[in-house]
Amino acid sequence: MHDPNPKAAIIGIAGLELKDDEAALLRQYRPAGVILFRRNVSDARQLMILTAELRAALPDDAVIMIDQEGGRVARLRPPHFNQHPPAGAIGDLYRGNPEAGIRAAWLQGALIGAECAALGITTVCAPVLDLRLPGMSSVVGDRGFGDAPEAVARLGRALARGLLAAGVEPVLKHAPGHGRARVDSHEAMPVVDETDLAADLFPFAANADLPWMMTAHLLYCALDPLLPGTLSPIVIGDTIRRRIGFDGVLVSDDLAMGALCGTPAARALAALSAGCDIALYCPGTMADNIDVLHAVPPLTDRAQARLAASRDAASASKLALDPARLLAERDGLGI
């Protein structure tokens, strides 16, 4: 008999279609969901078939997730999908006209959300709430709205509210803040020596009522000098859960990134032990997926309740949207 709760992992798949062995793996291990990448996307028809196949193989209410921020982090791209500006362009608009900037952020979220919802995607990894700070790695760069915490908080909230208006669940990233990384965590472990992180935490704390956050693979020396945020019970428990005040779904960033080491299973178990609700492992290779899914436990009852609350929030926030009209309005703002 299956455990009633799905496994506490979201994994990637290899290509444009769900292979028989992948479908069998999903049915056997019942992960919490699947994340999609460019390797999984051709056009709208193909993607709708793929998400339907995933839905048939996954547990009820499973997550189908994608990174779709706009700008350079976009898995859905022209000519088959809309082009969306980077968050930095929205931040630039806000500095000159805050009202227009807030509206542009909401429109961005609503447009991305409407497109994703129509394709069978439930959850979008956006907005980025990391500060865009001078002299730091370009890993954030124009993915961030800017360097002013209050503006980042307001714009991030507007974009998240736009996603929710489309019935899609937003994932705020990367808590407790990736903006001070001097190296790209996809390649190596960033070490943050700054002792005052109040500005970095502010956008997350101001949006702590939203349903999802994603952790950061950074070593914050002032918070925990031994373990990076994703793997640190101190960072997750003391900073994200208590100081930021977040009680929603906490998912790790991709555990396959170069900042971390160890086997896929060891990384996933460490993230869950630290306090993440869900371990995210993205490359889509069968051996790694088996390693992760064989090792991780089922979702806790608390994680299940958080996921249910997130689905409810998206359902309650959903509006009837006219994407063509919204796109024309956003384009008219000049971003």
Percent in strands: 5-15%
Q: If helices are DSSP runs of H or I spanning 4 or more residues, what is the number of helices?
A: 11
What is the distance, rounded to the nearest whole angstrom, between the alpha carbons of the first and last residues? Answer: 53 Å
Radius of gyration: 19 Å
Structural class: alpha/beta
Largest sheet, if any?
8 strands, parallel
Strand order of the largest sheet: 11-9-7-6-3-2-1-12
Number of strands: 12
Can you name the CATH architecture? Alpha-Beta Barrel
Provide the low-confidence segments as ranges.
Answer: none
Shape: globular
Oligomer: single chain
Whole-number mean pLDDT: 96
What do you see in this structure?
The protein is of the alpha/beta class and 335 residues long. The protein has a single domain, classed as Glycoside hydrolase, family 3, N-terminal domain (TIM Barrel), CATH 3.20.20.300. It is built from eleven helices and twelve strands. The chain has helices at 20-29, 44-57, 87-96, 98-118, 149-165, 198-205, 233-243, 264-274, 286-295, 301-317, 323-332; strands at residues 7-12, 31-36, 63-66, 68-70, 73-74, 123-124, 169-175, 191-192, 212-215, 219-220, 249-251, 279-281. It has an eight-stranded parallel sheet with strand order 11-9-7-6-3-2-1-12, sandwiched between helices. A two-stranded antiparallel ribbon has the order 4-5. It has a two-stranded parallel ribbon with strand order 8-10. Helix 5 (149-165) runs parallel beside helix 6. The longest helix is centred in the N-terminal third of the chain and has 21 residues, at 98-118. The model has no long low-confidence stretch (mean pLDDT 96).
